[in-house]
């Protein structure tokens, strides 16, 4: 009953805002479901009600099972762990010379090591490492996290005899390393924590929302020896969040694929709201040219070729003062991203 109520509310909103009658909407929903098994929530979240979209294009969209079948065809399951496991992914990026955040260590109760080859298995090991680390801000990532889950950004204070740590997501209190570990990191220590440099972003992106690293999500598809960058969006944080993910309330800036110009700023609601300026900071977003755009596109193409048997990935990339920095790859990118680009997903993923 809750889903039916949501559909009716969405239909009434489309009628009120765009003048498309309920009968017309429901007739299309029924036709798309019978012909392509596309459900009513997809009808609204993908904007299939729009008058400027042909029925042929509408039929080119994919439901969840159809999209998963595309991923299974393009990215064989045994090879996905090369990217899904952050330590394996970081190793490939570093060994092959791609620009990525500096590796500091891998904390794990059994077998953890820092970049010097020393044990990194206890809070005492971590304290010794951070005492000699030449960085003031670092971050921890759980081995197989997504959507900002398990990400912790840390400022290191070295004013006393031993370092203390401040969580950037809740600033104002510094804790000894052991206390910080127990409060924020212990839950994930068994599976492992990647410890790396916190990326400094370009001033253009920092102006949008300074507490989060606002990153690109670039979708790339390999066809033989060629890589096609299907499109990209910029994820931007909100409030005091230190991550930019939609799961944490972040916004999506739509981009012109060829120029890197921001063409619109939107929420991630089923029927999104649109802004010209960031609703929290008031900074103009729409119409801004992203820096280092050609380098970002070039890096995306080279990057996909380096990962064996991964033919379709979502690349998360920061833009630093000197150029792009690879954050991570996602071999199972969210289906919603494919709806923002130049052709229906069924045509893109062939």
Structure description:
With 350 residues, the chain is an alpha+beta fold. It is built from twelve helices and 14 strands. Helix 6 packs across helix 7 (86-95). It starts with a helix and ends with a helix. 35% of the residues are buried.
Per-chain topology:
Elements: H1 2-18, H2 22-36, H3 40-45, H4 55-58, H5 64-74, H6 77-84, H7 86-95, E1 103-107, E2 113-114, H8 123-132, E3 137-142, E4 152-157, E5 164-167, E6 174-176, H9 177-185, E7 193-197, H10 203-208, E8 216-223, E9 226-236, E10 251-255, E11 262-266, E12 274-275, H11 293-305, E13 312-320, E14 323-330, H12 345-348
Antiparallel strand pairs: 1-2, 1-7, 3-4, 3-7, 4-5, 5-6, 8-9, 8-13, 9-10, 10-11, 11-12, 13-14
Label the structural class. alpha+beta
Stretches where pLDDT is under 50 for at least 5 consecutive residues are none
What is the makeup of the main sheet? 7 strands, antiparallel
Please identify the oligomeric state: single chain
- Helix and strand element order: HHHHHHHEEHEEEEHEHEEEEEHEEH
Please give the count of helices: 12
Helix content estimate = 25-40%
| Number of E-state strands | 14
Radius of gyration: 22 Å
